[in-house]
Design brief:
GO molecular function (chain C): NADH dehydrogenase (ubiquinone) activity
Distance between the termini of chain B: 52 Å
Enzyme class (chain C): translocase
Low-confidence stretches of chain C: 84-91
Order of helices and strands of chain B: HHH
Organism (chain C): Selaginella moellendorffii
Largest sheet of chain C: none
CATH architecture of the domain at 1-80 in chain C: Up-down Bundle
Order of helices and strands of chain C: HHHHHHH
Number of strands of chain C: 0
CATH class of chain B: Mainly Alpha
Distance between the termini of chain C: 62 Å
Catalytic activity (chain C): a ubiquinone + NADH + 5 H(+)(in) = a ubiquinol + NAD(+) + 4 H(+)(out)
CATH architecture of chain B: Orthogonal Bundle
Chains: A mainly alpha, B mainly alpha, C mainly alpha
Low-confidence stretches of chain B: none
Largest sheet of chain B: none
Helix content of chain B: over 70%
Mean pLDDT of chain B: 81
Number of domains of chain B: 1
CATH topology of chain B: Helix Hairpins
Helix content of chain C: over 70%
Structural class of chain C: mainly alpha
Main location (chain C): mitochondrion
Oligomer: heterotrimer
Strand content of chain B: under 5%
CATH superfamily of the domain at 1-80 in chain C: NADH-ubiquinone/plastoquinone oxidoreductase chain 6, subunit NuoJ
């Protein structure tokens, strides 16, 4: 509780110090933007340095045990630190992409760094969500930031349609989610902390009452929308297709990661409530891993196709979540990291590719290998980790999460991994064949000239190579993460605090004694 | 005149609003209003529980949800305005720009 | 079957009916739907008054009726609606009738609770003077907001800021046609 050091100078100690950084910097961006008309010189550096500082803070205070701040109900542990760092990492990686995009389209939306920072903040908040208030408020923040930046200001019909779908469905799902909370707040006796709720339920012996059983159903129905598990997955391809690439690269995926961080909280709370609670997410995980891979085969648009691997990845993440043991959480964390690198890298390369071909239809890219081998190599390299070729990161994550599923006794989930790998390898090899062999594609445009721009590092006028520069760490990470997988998982597994599980187990034991009496 | 009455009222309101979201295929406005009605039902639930338990946390939650609802509706209405400008209609059934 | 039950029944059933009308009024002109929507909130705040949550009743009126419904109406007026679907007109008297009924019920309530002569207190005030502190809703909420969950307060303020900026960005950057 009393943590000395860097964080103690900030209000509420070090619990929320990473969150304290984006708030002032986003406000500084706004102030600069309003005082210097049309001058975006400082916006991008600020939006880049803020997540860099933010990522230093949790790393510098790598803590051994969870901290619960009494004042604001914020609770953090190492698991959440990793989540938060991954969101910040993503925020850093997408910055060159968006700088490039807004320059290319000459749509100088100066507010976009602000919304990006606000989305980062929204993604960071769920990790310290330990009471119902935060859990109900936090997901809104990351999803609200998607709407203004999603490009529905253009004349194109598709972005506005995607935004309308996302906003209305998202609003519905979050109200359903929130409607589960009064039933957790009221009947157990006015507690808002998860452990208080659990204690209240156990003490009042309300496990089987109607009000309590309503709550998990509603919460489950609401929470699976944001990570886009299968019956709720329709918004993802629409948003991917309709929005400009940097927007796709950040807010939807942030809200996904944030929602799976939130889901760990809620599932932790729900798991003692009823024994059958994981049947539903189990079915959803199976459906989304299979369907996410199958539907991707039928896609004709490059970006739309890219929307489906994340759906199946969320399925794998959910397996780790359902397993509910430390190694399950470790697999979830590692898979989230892969998800970030691989997916963002793929998007960046697709953005490069489609800026050259001028289209995002897969057919039009046929045979582009003959014209520019290096360019064609990138998209072939990018989906292959998703598919799971051996030296890359995919195949190491999948067996691990399958193994966790087997360990937790979730046998139906085990054969899913290999099966879907086969499907996606088939699918991606089809794309590679198309790129390499076939003819009839559109002719590539010449690379854009660089001389218009001032190639200076601090300048927001980015050289074209900046996006390529940004792609490099992702290529490296997505290819070599498979080899460095073992240290990552062990670090994650060793740092999962056992308090969560210990506490749940104590309550469960109490309950068992009570019911046996 | 017990809390059960209030809870029944808010639950029925919530179900009505869900029905509005699910069944409505004509107007995006009505969808947005249905979402607001859902949040209203949630708020009523929180307030009733808060009075019942004599605990202020429920009212606090209701206040935050009110803020979120206001933000949601502002954003939703702005999106509807832009949609109307690009598409020229508010009907849901015309939203077929993307397939897949 | 006392008065409070009757009043609760009247208010809640009216709110439910108007909520159902809002939901069902898809094909019609949305203006009556917005008014019915307003009516739901007004009736709900009536219920809140009955629960002694006077601050929240006021907040519901101010936020929903004062701000949100006006916003809705404004947008409805801005997007001048063509009549889509049926030209079937619903008799436009419903809203007025319901509002009138509401006023009548309030009037009846006020008349029924007409002021009575004060009875002498059994507990003289001076005895407890200085020992009893009372906190209104507003006090308690303010204490909670500013000392117990200030971070969430700031956070929801940020949500509102994002919503404000987002609405401005969305509507300003639209290409004129």
């Amino acid at each position: 509780m009393t943590e000395l050091g860097f964080g103690s100078r900030l209000p509420y100690g070090s619990t929320i110090s990473p969150e304290c950084i984006p708030i002032p910097s986003s406000i500084i961006i706004l102030m600069i933007d309003s005082t210097h008309e049309g001058d975006t010189y400082w916006s991008y550096p600020i939006s880049l340095t803020c997540p860099v500082i933010g990522i230093m803070v949790p790393l510098s205070q790598w803590r051994e045990e969870p901290i619960i701040s009494p004042a604001c109900g914020a609770q953090t542990n190492t698991c959440d630190d990793i989540f938060q760092s991954s969101i910040l990492l993503r925020s850093i990686l997408r910055a060159p992409l968006s700088a490039e995009h807004f320059q290319c389209t000459e749509m100088a939306v100066t507010e976009s760094p602000f919304f990006a920072l606000a989305a980062t903040l929204g993604g960071m908040f769920p990790r310290c969500a330990s009471d119902l208030v935060t859990i109900s408020v936090a997901p809104e923040r990351s999803s609200l930031c998607l709407h203004p930046s999603s490009g529905c200001t253009s004349r194109d019909v598709r972005p506005s349609e995607a935004t309308v779908k996302y906003s209305l469905l998202g609003g519905t799902s979050s109200s359903i989610l929130v409607h589960g909370f009064p039933w957790l707040y009221g009947p157990p006796g006015g507690e808002v902390q998860p452990w208080g709720i659990l204690n209240g339920i156990v003490e009042s012996k309300m496990q089987n009452s109607a009000g309590i059983s309503i709550a998990p159903v509603r919460i489950m129905a609401g929470i699976v929308f944001k990570p886009s598990l299968v019956p709720y997955h329709q918004w993802t391809p629409d948003v991917y297709e309709g929005s400009p690439t940097p927007v796709v690269a950040f807010p939807p995926v942030t809200s996904k990661v944030a929602a799976s961080g939130l889901a760990t909280r809620i599932f932790n709370l729900l798991s003692p409530l009823s024994g059958e609670w994981h049947l539903l997410p189990e079915i959803l995980a199976i459906l989304s891993t299979i369907l996410g891979n199958l539907i991707a085969i039928a896609q004709k648009s490059m970006k739309r196709m890219l929307a489906y691997p994340p759906i199946s990845q969320i399925g794998y993440i959910t397996i780790g979540l359902i397993a509910g043991n430390p190694s399950g959480y470790a697999s979830m964390l590692t898979y989230t990291l892969f998800h970030i690198f691989v997916n963002l890298g793929a998007l960046a390369r697709i953005a490069l590719f489609s800026s050259r071909t001028g289209t995002d239809s897969i057919r039009d890219c046929a045979g582009s290998c003959g014209q520019d081998p290096l360019l064609a190599l990138r998209p072939t390299l990018s989906p292959s980790p998703l598919g799971g070729f051996p030296p890359l990161s995919g195949p190491f994550g999948k067996p691990y999460s399958s193994w966790c599923g087997r360990q937790a006794g979730l046998y139906p989930l085990v054969p899913i991994g290999p099966l879907t790998s086969v499907i996606s390898i088939y699918h991606h090899s089809k794309i590679i064949k198309l790129l390499m062999g076939e003819r009839g594609g559109r002719k590539l445009a010449t690379p854009r000239t660089i001389n218009k721009r001032i190639p200076s590092l601090s300048s927001p006028h980015t050289p074209e190579s900046l996006i390529e520069l940004g792609t490099m760490p992702r290529v490296v990470a997505s290819t070599t993460l498979g080899l460095t997988m073992n240290p990552v998982t062990t670090t994650a597994r060793d740092n999962i605090p056992n308090q969560i599980f210990a506490h749940t187990a104590t309550i469960l034991m109490d309950f068992g004694e009570m019911s046996s009496e | 005149m017990t809390a059960v009455n209030y809870l029944t009222f808010s639950t029925i309101l919530f179900l009505l609003a869900i029905g509005g979201v699910l069944l409505n295929s004509q107007n995006l406005f009505i969808l947005l209003m249905s979402i607001e009605l859902m949040l209203l039902a949630v708020n009523m639930n929180f307030l009733v529980f808060s009075v019942l338990l004599d605990d202020m946390m429920g009212q606090l939650l209701a206040l935050f949800i009110l803020a979120v609802a206001a933000a949601d509706s502002a954003m939703g209405l702005a999106i509807l305005v832009t949609t109307y400008r690009t598409r020229g209609t508010m009907a849901v059934e015309y939203a077929t720009g993307m397939k897949g | 079957m006392n008065n409070s039950t009757i009043l609760f029944g009247v208010l809640s059933s009216l709110a439910l009916v108007s909520g159902g009308l809002v939901v069902r009024s898809g094909a019609l002109n949305p203006v009556p739907a917005v008014f019915l929507f307003l009516l739901v909130f007004v009736l709900c705040s009536g219920l809140l008054v009955w629960l002694d949550l006077d601050f929240f009743a006021m907040i519901f009126l101010v936020v929903y009726a004062g701000a949100m419904v006006v916003f809705f109406l404004f947008v409805v007026m801005m997007c001048t609606f063509r009549r889509e679907g049926r030209e079937h007109e619903v008799a436009p008297r419903h809203t007025e009738f319901v509002v009138g009924l509401l006023f009548l019920s309030h009037l009846w309530l006020v008349l029924e609770r007409s002021p009575r002569p004060p009875t002498p207190s059994a507990y003289p005030i001076g005895e407890h003077c200085g020992h009893v502190t009372s906190a209104t809703h507003l006090d308690t909420l303010g204490t909670l907001l500013y000392t117990h969950v200030p971070l969430l307060f700031i956070g929801s303020g940020l949500i509102l800021l994002v919503a404000l900026l987002g609405a401005i960005v969305l509507t300003v950057h639209t290409p004129g046609d």
